[in-house]
Design a protein that fits this description.
Distance between the termini: 9 Å
CATH class: Alpha Beta
CATH architecture: Alpha-Beta Barrel
Helix content: 40-55%
Structural class: alpha/beta
Radius of gyration: 19 Å
Oligomer: single chain
Strand order of the largest sheet: 1-2-3-4-5-6-7-10
CATH superfamily: Luciferase-like domain
Largest sheet: 8 strands, parallel, barrel
Order of helices and strands: EHEHEHEHHEHEHEEHHHEHEH
Low-confidence stretches: none
Length: about 325
Amino acid sequence: MQLSLLDRSRTRVGVPDAEALEATVARAVHAEQVGYERFWVAEHHAVPGIASGTPAVLLAAIGARTSRIRIGSGGVMLPLHQPLVVAEQFLVLGALHPGRVDLGLGRSVGFTAPVRRVLRRDLDAVESFEGDLAELRGYLEGTAEVTARPATDRVVPMHLLATGRGIDLAARLGLPVVVGGPVLDSDELPEVLGRYRREFRPHRGSTPRVTISLDITVADDDAAARDLALPEAWAMALSRQTGEFPPLEPVAAIRGASWPAQVRRRVDASLDRAVAGSPATVRRRLERLVERTYADEVMSSASTYDRDALLVSDRLLRELVT
C-alpha cells in the first residue's frame, strides 16, 4: 500500500495567510524526507480557513523545493476552468518536474452562493463535466484539434476525485479514482469499488486504481491524537452553523469555548470518522480499511493547529507502512 498526503494550506487564527502557504511547502519537503509517495494540494476559493485557490502555482513552488516526491492537485475543480488552460498549467509543471506531476480533478463549484456567483458558476448550468474531462485528456495526450503547449511525449496522469456516480464515471473513462468524504462510511462502498474494478474500461493500458482519502492523525496515545484532530473537527462543525469554513483554533481555546449540543454532536461524529490514535490504533484502523476497500493507496488529508505536531504525526504515520 502506498501512502500520501493532501495538504489544504489551512490558515490559523491570528496568523497571516501567507504562513499557511509557507507551511505547505515545508510540509512537502518533510514528506519527501520521510518517504511519502506523493504530496497533493487543493483548490478552494475565498474560504477563510484555506489560503490556496491555485494548485498549479503552489505546486510550482513545491516542485522547486523537492526532487523525488510526486506532486499533484487534489484537485483542480474542472467546472471552474477551461480545459485548455488546465492542460497548459499542468504541461508546464510536467515539463519543469518531469515524471512527478499528477492532475487530480473534481467537480465542486464553490462553497457558498456568493463565491459561486463571483466564479461565474450557475448551479443550474448544463452539466459538462464528462465532456470537459475528455477534452482535457485530448490536450494532455496531444490528440486534440489544438495542441496545448509545451508539447511533450510524457503524459501528465489524470485522477478523478469522486463520490457515488463519479466512481462509475472513473471506471467508464479508465481513470484512477480518489474516494473520500461520507461515501467512506457507506455500507455499499465495497460493492461500489467492486463495480468500479469490474466495469473499468482501460485507456492506453490503464488499470483500476483506488486511493482512499481521509483525515489521519498519529500521536503517542489515542487521547493526544484525538486532540490533534479536534481543531479540524471543530472548524467543520462551525461551518455547518455559519456557512463559513473558519481558520483553525488552538485546542485550549476550543476546550474553553461554548459547545452547543448540535456542535458537540457534529464534532464527535467528525472525530469518530477520522483515524486518530496511537501508532498501534492507527495501524489497526488502516488494516481494516484496506481489507474493506482493497485500496492501492491511502492519502491523509489531516490538519491541525500545531504545525510541529502535524509533522510528527506525518512521520509516525509514514513509519507504520514499510
